[in-house]
Structure formats: structure tokens, C-alpha cells
Amino acid sequence: MRLEAVTLHRLSMPLVRPFETSFGRQTSRVVLMVHVRTDEAEGWGECVAMDSPLYSSEYVDGCENVIRNYLAPALLAATEVSAETVAPLLSFVIGHRMAKAALEAAVLDAQLRGAGRSLASHFGATREWVDCGVSVGISPDIDSLLAEVAGYVEAGYRRIKLKIKPGWDLEPVAEVRALLGPAGRLQVDANTAYTVGDIPHLARLDEFALLLIEQPFAEEDLAAHVTLARHIRTPVCLDESILNEHVARDAIERGATSVVNIKAGRMGGYLEALRVHDACVELGVPVWCGGMLETGVGRAANVALAALPGFSLPGDTSASNRYFAEDLITEPFALGTGKNSGQLAVPTAPGTGVSVREDLVRDWALAAPVGIRR
Ligand code: NPG
């Protein structure tokens, strides 16, 4: 395909309830959407970076800047682009994986729309429905936490993930375990809030039969995760640390992780996420699909990815209404009913399979769109 134009849209979408993690509290989702026009079709990609560099070093202003000044001009200068050539064409820029992933996703969407093929079939999906979990932020108190969790159980979610941090761990986990009963699927996510000295404390989580503990230590500290894995029965799962297939294999082989959270944005794109998936399948390591408070555009791609065979645990692929009163797409994601309770249907239409509501792109704009042309 020939890439004609890249347009960046910065939006702010109100969240239905504040979302608090060990690194901060959000009341709205500021999101950078990438639109591409090619000689064959148009496509949309979502940049998962947050407004501030608190989860990773990337953030919306930085992504917009690097796309505008380096990444988009490089793609526009190429005679031909396809999703497969985006990463090689952009490899001259170090890092900036979330920015690169957004461009690759938009090109992939355009390419598949042009070919009349869905993302799920392109990825090699083997399921029509995926199991959904929900990520529960840090609450003001235990009673509000239990009320929130009870609501998600009632809605049908198949797994609960609790955000934890020092001072908010054993007690909320014990209370939620009591609420769910022994069979309820429960896991925790620390977003790097602990240090190696906390290992004896974290080992006390073993009594709550968790599916996994996610990323307790700094992203560059694989060694601390190896030590924890030797001291705890709960499986250790890495998120922030896993930047690509190479790091995934290294972390697994060293014993730093026995489950992997796959987020395409963190890995520079869906094509690298597929390689991480395949490596984990080869090494016998289960994976699940993480989430970054995506709009329906990013959610659609995540649901297609989560339909691959290695995704054997429910993902943070929640319904649109878990975050937004109104989603950015014409057909918001809703949990299924009956035998599909707690599941989302994998989109089957070409590309991401969802249509962007351009009225909301205009209504929620924080700034005028930025157009970059050949
Ligand atoms: O359901 O999309 C979702 C959010 C899942 O908890 C979630 N994401 O660390 O995985 C994470 C976390 C996150 C939230 C990361 C906000 C970055 C920002």
C-alpha cells in the first residue's frame, strides 16, 4: 500500500468511576488516536500511552511528538508500506514502542479492510468468544471495594484482578477471597510498587490461592522476580518487564515469570505480541491479554488477540461500560449472556471490525487534529 496521510487526534473520555493504581488515580482517559489514509483503505490505531509517564516512560505528549517528527515522516517517505514493514521501517528510532504500535495497528487495520479480512482471522484466532476478567482499582475503603467486586461478579466477569500496593494488600485480598469463595478466580497486580525486602510479606499472599501476582518489582529487575518466584507458591507474572519476544524468553528461562501478560502497545505492536504468544506456547507458559483502559478501537484488537490458543487465562478485556458511559465505536462491547456470560464476542468484520464514531472524535477533542502528509 501507499501511505497518503497520518492524522493524530487527542481526546479526553470521561471514566464512569475513578481508576486508582499504585502509581496514581485517573478520572478520565486522555487518548491519542492515529488515523491513516492509504491508496487502498483507511485505518485507525489507538496509542495506549497515558497522559503522564507513570506506568511507563511513554506518555501522550511524547508519543505525539515522536510520531509527528520521526515515525510518521519515515512511513510516509517509504514507497510501499504494510503492517509487516512498519517495525523495520521504524527501527531507527530507539524505544517508543507504544507510539510505534499505534501506527502499526492503524496500517494493519487499513490493510485488512482493503483485503476484506478480520484481525482475528489474520492473527490465527481459534475462538469466537473470549473469557473476560476485570481489573479493580484501589478503593477508598474495604466496603466500597467489596461493593464494586460484587457488582462485577453479578455482571458475569470470570476473574477479578485487584490492584495492590504497600498498605493495601493482605486485607483487601483476604476480604475479596472470602466474598468470591474458594473457586473464584482472583489475581493481584502491584505495578512495581514493592522491593525485594518485601518478599516475606508478599509470600503471605500464598494463603489466598491466587492465580498469579503481577509485576511486584521494577521493570528492569528480573533478578528480584526470580528470587520471589523461589520463595512463593503463587505464580509470578510479568507485565511492564516484557518488552519483546527476546525479553519474554529470557525472563521465562531465568525463572522470573511463569505466566505472561501480553499488551501489544508495550511490545511495539500486535505483530511482536504474536511472536511473544508463540514463544510462550512453545515454552509451555500461559498468557493472558492485558488492558490499558482502551477505547473500543484498542479493545477490538485486544479481543481478536485474546482469541489465540495460548490465551488460556481471562484477560483485562472488559466490556466498554466498565470504563466509559459512551465508547468511541458504534457498537460498544457488551458481555454475552447464557453460555457466553462473562465473555466478549470476537469481531468478525474486516480490520478491527468496529466503526469509529467521528462525532465523538470531534466532541471529545482536546486539540485540533494534527495532519502529517507525504
Ligand atoms: O481493563 O483496560 C483495563 C485496565 C487493566 O489494570 C489494568 N491496566 O497495569 O495493567 C495495568 C493497568 C494499567 C492501568 C496500566 C492504567 C496503565 C494505566
Explain what the structure shows.
This protein is α/β, with parallel strands linked by helices and 374 residues long. The chain folds into two domains: 3-116 and 357-373, Enolase-like, domain 1 (2-Layer Sandwich), CATH 3.30.390.10; 121-345, Enolase-like C-terminal domain (TIM Barrel), CATH 3.20.20.120. It is 35% helix and 20% strand. It is built from twelve helices and 13 strands. It has helices at residues 60-77, 83-90, 97-115, 119-123, 142-155, 170-180, 199-203, 222-231, 245-254, 270-283, 296-306, 358-363; strands spanning 3-21, 24-38, 42-47, 129-131, 133-136, 159-163, 186-189, 213-214, 236-238, 259-262, 287-289, 343-345, 370-373. Strands 5-6-7-8-9-10-11 form a seven-stranded parallel beta sheet. Strands 3-2-1-13 form a four-stranded antiparallel beta sheet. It has a two-stranded antiparallel ribbon with strand order 4-12. Helix 5 (142-155) runs parallel beside helix 6 (170-180) and helix 9 (245-254) runs parallel beside helix 10 (270-283). The two termini are 14 Å apart. The site of N-succinyl phenylglycine (NPG) has 14 residues, from loops.
Comma- or semicolon-separated keywords:
alpha/beta; Enolase-like, domain 1; seven-stranded parallel beta sheet; 374 residues; 2 domains; four-stranded antiparallel beta sheet; single chain; binds N-succinyl phenylglycine; 35% helix
